[in-house]
């Protein structure tokens, strides 16, 4: 069985550096989700990333029970959806019931923006509940023991700066899209200096690096796969990685972390500087969204974009 390194969080808890992502591309429970998580647990994964609005917490919980892996050995993450910003306690209770567990290891605010269900629209940054108000309610959840840690997701330096001025608890992690096309070096430096671990989502870039000549060359020279190059880069730069795969061979590959030489790290660090390369593969930071994402402009989100869905820095 693979030994995955652990990252020490700012509250003393430990998170396995590699986990299984459970966003399936569509919302909902399915036997496929249960089988994927079961296979992952059998292969040695001990970090599971899901979310209330993936709609598959029941299937994830089913896999945990069927696996017979003790709950205490699993690092389980779920997320507060935008609709629930005004009621994190209720939302966490709902997630725990669906997962069939007494606690999660980490509860993340999925996005900084709240969604106003009554009016069917996203709230503006200054409208209540602001992310500061929601964070304060999340802070109270740690005392209940229903989550061991709290963190954020899709937070920029700008919004972390605002949050940290009011936070009693520093987020243990910020989960963001991160791979060599969107390395977010500035955000990594900012979070590292404040004790916030970054967790990279879409860490194998949704397999869009398969034809990139630089990444292919590194993979061939090291006799590993493209995904292993990307995950090795992610972990070596100090970020947790949560790739998703429904294929056993890929799941195994993704958990077999490789250590890259410094010169390969540098090539990957600089890949985004090549013309047209600096972009999101998830479509969140994308010109297709017309300058905004889930109701907030890029400026409100703190994303520095130029034309064509390309990031500036
Ligand atoms: N916080 C957020 O807002 C947010 C947003 C997006 C994602 N996430 C989390 O991050 C996780 C990962 O992100 P993601 O699923 O979007 O992207 P990803 O893990 O980079 O890519 C997943 C895709 O790559 C393929 N793949 C995985 N490993 C592979 C390998 N070794 N070789 C070839 N292809 C491989 C998978 O196909 P197969 O399944 O067919 O193998 C799947 O199509 C999600 O599942 C979710 O938990 C969080």
Structural notes for this entry:
The protein is 35% helix and 17% strand. The protein starts with 5 loop residues before the first strand and ends with a strand. The mean pLDDT is 95. Helix 7 (213-222) crosses helix 8 (226-236). The chain is an alpha/beta fold and 313 residues long. The strands form 5 sheets. Strands 3-4-5-6-9-10-11-12 form an 8-stranded parallel β-sheet. The protein has helices at 31-43, 57-67, 88-99, 131-144, 157-166, 185-193, 213-222, 226-236, 248-255, 262-270, 298-301, and strands at 6-8, 14-16, 20-21, 47-49, 75-80, 104-109, 115-116, 121-122, 147-153, 173-177, 197-201, 240-241, 292-293, 296-297, 305-306, 310-311. The chain is built from 11 helices and 16 strands. The chain has one domain (6-311): Alpha-Beta Barrel (TIM Barrel), CATH 3.20.20. The structure holds NADP nicotinamide-adenine-dinucleotide phosphate. NADP nicotinamide-adenine-dinucleotide phosphate binds at residues 21-23, 49, 110, 153-154, 175, 201-207, 225, 227, 242-247, 250, 253-254, 282.
């Amino acid at each position: 069985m693979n030994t995955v390194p652990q990252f020490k969080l700012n509250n003393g808890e430990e998170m396995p550096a590699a986990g299984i992502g459970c966003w399936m591309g569509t919302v909902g429970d399915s036997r496929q989700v249960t089988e994927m998580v079961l296979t992952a647990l059998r292969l040695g994964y001990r970090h599971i990333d899901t979310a209330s609005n993936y709609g598959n917490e029941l299937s994830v919980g089913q896999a945990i029970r069927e696996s017979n892996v003790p709950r205490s050995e699993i690092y389980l993450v779920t997320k507060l959806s935008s609709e629930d910003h005004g009621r994190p306690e209720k939302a966490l209770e709902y997630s725990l019931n669906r997962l069939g567990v007494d606690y999660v290891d980490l509860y993340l605010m999925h996005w900084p923006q709240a969604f106003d269900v009554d009016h069917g629209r996203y709230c503006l940054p200054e409208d209540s509940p602001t992310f500061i108000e929601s964070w304060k309610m999340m802070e109270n959840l740690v005392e209940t023991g229903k989550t061991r840690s709290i963190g954020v997701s899709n937070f920029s330096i700008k919004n972390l700066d605002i949050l940290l001025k009011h936070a009693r608890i520093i987020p243990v992690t910020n989960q963001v899209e991160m791979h060599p096309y969107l390395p977010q070096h500035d955000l990594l430096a900012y979070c590292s200096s404040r004790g916030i671990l970054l967790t990279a989502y879409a860490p194998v870039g949704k397999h869009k690096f398969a034809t990139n000549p630089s990444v292919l060359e590194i993979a061939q020279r090291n006799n590993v796969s493209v995904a292993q190059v990307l995950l090795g880069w992610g972990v070596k730069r100090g970020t947790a990685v949560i790739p998703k795969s429904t294929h056993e061979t890929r799941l195994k590959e993704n958990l077999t972390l490789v250590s890259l030489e410094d010169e390969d790290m540098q090539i990957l660090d600089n890949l985004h500087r090549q013309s047209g390369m600096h972009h999101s593969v998830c479509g969140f930071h994308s010109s297709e969204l017309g300058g905004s994402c889930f109701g907030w402009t890029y400026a409100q989100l703190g994303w520095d974009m130029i034309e064509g869905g390309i990031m500036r820095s």
